[in-house]
Design brief:
- The chain has 16 helices and no strands.
- With 362 residues, it is mostly helical.
- The longest helix has 38 residues.
- The radius of gyration is 21 Å and the shape is globular.
């Protein structure tokens, strides 16, 4: 059932900040726009997402607890058989690669549209990937430490929203539940929930957790820290923007910073974009580490060369010679596939129960 014990590296605080920092990424930057189909009623949607994340986290921890020394890639092979398991694992690896490329591409698009309007993104992408390889090569504990550093370096950006809060209009919250259709709600959930993805990666680093019995609780703390940050930024966006602006202003959270200014900083949003690179790195580093673990499992051989190969593939996906519209459709498609990963443990729970029942009957 187990191929051997994994070295326990992750203490409770590592687990908390892994969940928290991986979830932020670029998603929160455009969350108000993703929820714009609900208009001003979107303010409390992050809280609903937090409830959904808390519920869907349980099957992930449960299935991992049955195989405490194995990650999801190995569990797939154990429960589904070697070949079907490897096929599913390959599917997840491809999804991770495209997901990483999408996050990097969106961030580079943000930089190009605001700070480097007359330059190509080739150089920044190359430098970004070099830094990413350095972080991931240190292993999951290195990534966890980077996530902790990222939290304390970037949490101060919440202060930059206080000007928008002061200038906002509380009447936008009233009535508390503005009218919206079922289709509007479905569209908001479908697009908005993508912004909090990341907590599902616990299925891959679970074997490295020291206190596995409390992994659910510690991950839940990280999830709700991120949910609280999403709620604050969404609520302030509702107060500050009109409904038209919520729908049409891209990366609206960064534009909240423009509501006020310091005498010694000309553009606070550029300062925010610069700090945000830490959040992007913490997110994609975890996904790249998982993709590398997937390749190790797929080829039944561990090698650091796989990390460099994955980085090269990601570079070419980001730089693919296709239109921006095609790239966005590809990246969004990969994002929606991520919903499969969230629901996947439920299927594995059913397979596990059937196999145990069969063993009892025999």
């Amino acid at each position: 059932m187990s191929t051997g014990k994994s070295k326990k590296l992750l203490n409770p605080y590592h687990v908390v900040f892994l969940a928290q920092s991986i979830m932020i990424g670029t998603g929160i930057l455009s969350l108000p726009q993703q929820l714009s189909s609900l208009g001003y009623s979107q303010a409390f949607m992050p809280l609903l997402f937090g409830v959904i994340a808390s519920i869907t986290l349980y099957p992930m921890v449960w299935i991992n607890s049955k195989y405490p020394n194995e990650n999801l890639f190995r569990i797939n092979e154990i429960l589904l058989g070697k070949w079907l398991g490897k096929f599913i694992n390959l599917f997840f690896i491809i999804q991770f690669i495209i997901f990483i490329a999408g996050i990097i591409s969106n961030y580079m698009h943000l930089i190009q549209s605001t700070a480097l309007q007359e330059q190509t993104i080739t150089g920044p992408v190359f430098c970004f990937l070099l830094l990413l390889i350095y972080i991931v090569s240190g292993g999951i504990k290195s990534i966890a430490r980077f996530c902790i550093m990222t939290f304390f370096l970037t949490i101060g950006m919440v202060y930059f929203t206080h000007w928008a809060f002061e200038k906002g209009d509380f009447s936008h919250f009233l009535p508390l539940y503005n009218f919206f259709s079922v289709n509007d709600f479905y569209e908001a959930v479908k697009r908005g929930y993508l912004s909090i993805l990341g907590y599902e990666l616990i299925m891959f680093y679970f074997p490295y957790i020291v206190d596995q019995k409390k992994a659910y609780r510690h991950t839940l703390i990280g999830i709700w820290i991120s949910i609280l940050l999403c709620f604050i930024t969404t609520a302030i966006s509702v107060m500050y923007y009109s409904e038209w602006q919520l729908e049409n202003v891209e990366f609206s959270v960064l534009n909240l910073f423009k509501a006020g200014e310091f005498s010694f900083i000309e553009r606070i949003d550029i300062f925010g974009i610069t700090l945000w690179v830490f959040l992007i790195l913490s997110t994609v580093a975890a996904y790249l580490w998982c993709a590398k673990k997937g390749v190790d499992s797929l080829l039944s051989k561990k090698s650091n060369a796989y990390l460099y190969i994955l980085a090269i593939i990601i570079f070419f996906v980001v730089k693919m010679p296709f239109s921006r519209d095609f790239q966005e459709k590809l990246f969004y498609g990969a994002n929606y596939v991520a919903y499969m990963l969230i629901l996947w443990p439920i299927l594995l729970m059913m397979v596990y129960a059937l196999r145990k029942k069969k063993q009892v009957q025999l």
